[in-house]
Design a protein that fits this description.
This protein is mostly helical and about 230 residues long. The chain folds into two domains: about 140 residues, no CATH class; about 70 residues, no CATH class. Helices cover about 70% and strands about 0% of the residues. Helix 1 packs antiparallel against helix 2 and helix 4 packs across helix 7.
Length: about 230
């Protein structure tokens, strides 16, 4: 029995996509880890980013393994590839469930780390400068209580529209200060990042199922071919 060439190259194409997916996960994870603009306030790493970097590397290696197994029609490599995909699929499902359940804890996690910077007036000038930049960039003021976190409200808390006479900014209160805390802004950014990661993980899980099915079919076909050739 001959191996289905269409199935063989379909698995090769799948593994190419799988390898590219690993590159995307690795790239996004590294971006989330290092893209902090050298700001000590927002440089707290998100939980699980290091794990995602490792997953990205593993997926890239498995994509290469699957490509070799498909082209060379190697049953051992295909079986190893199938088992590895199954293990990653289980881990992804478990991580997705934990991520969805623990998403509500992101706020507590960030607030706990921001609390160490209070009171703001006692922080070193370098930390204050980073917070000034963060407030101007994210249009926020203070960390947990808003302007009340400051003994003297800095200029970065004041909306440009309050002094320029332009159209009032919806992010500002009646006093011309940003009404959202920087912690709330960081929570919004963290939740968006987690949403991106979970979306990528879901897409990878679909690819894993597809790859496992094709790998097992090809594995069985190669086994029948080997049996027929030795008979």
């Amino acid at each position: 029995m001959a191996v289905n060439k269409c199935l063989k190259y379909l698995l090769f194409f799948f593994n190419l996509l799988f390898w590219i997916s690993g590159c995307i996960i690795l790239g996004v994870s590294i971006y989330l880890k290092v893209n902090k603009d050298n700001n000590s306030i927002s440089s707290e790493p998100l939980p699980g980013v290091d794990l995602l970097i490792a997953v990205g590397v593993i997926i890239m290696l498995l994509g290469f393994l699957g490509c070799c197994g498909a082209i060379k029609e190697n049953r051992c490599m295909l079986l190893l590839f199938f088992i590895s995909l199954l293990l990653i699929f289980v881990l992804l499902v478990a991580a997705g469930i934990l991520g969805a359940v623990g998403e509500s804890k992101v706020k507590e996690w960030i607030e706990e780390r921001m609390n160490k910077y209070l009171p703001l007036s006692n922080q070193p000038e370098t930390v204050k400068e980073d917070l000034y930049k963060l407030q101007a960039e994210l249009k926020c003021c203070g960390l947990l209580k808003g302007p009340a976190d400051w003994t003297k409200i800095p200029e970065s808390c004041k909306c440009p529209s309050a002094t320029s006479g332009t159209t009032p900014d919806p992010d500002c209160d009646s006093g011309g200060l940003y009404k959202t805390t920087c912690t709330d802004r960081l929570i919004e950014l963290a939740e968006k990042s987690m949403g991106i990661v979970l979306g990528i993980a879901f897409a990878i899980a679909i690819l894993l199922i597809f790859g496992m099915v094709i790998a097992m079919i090809l594995y069985c076909q190669i086994g029948k071919k080997d049996t027929a050739s030795t008979a």
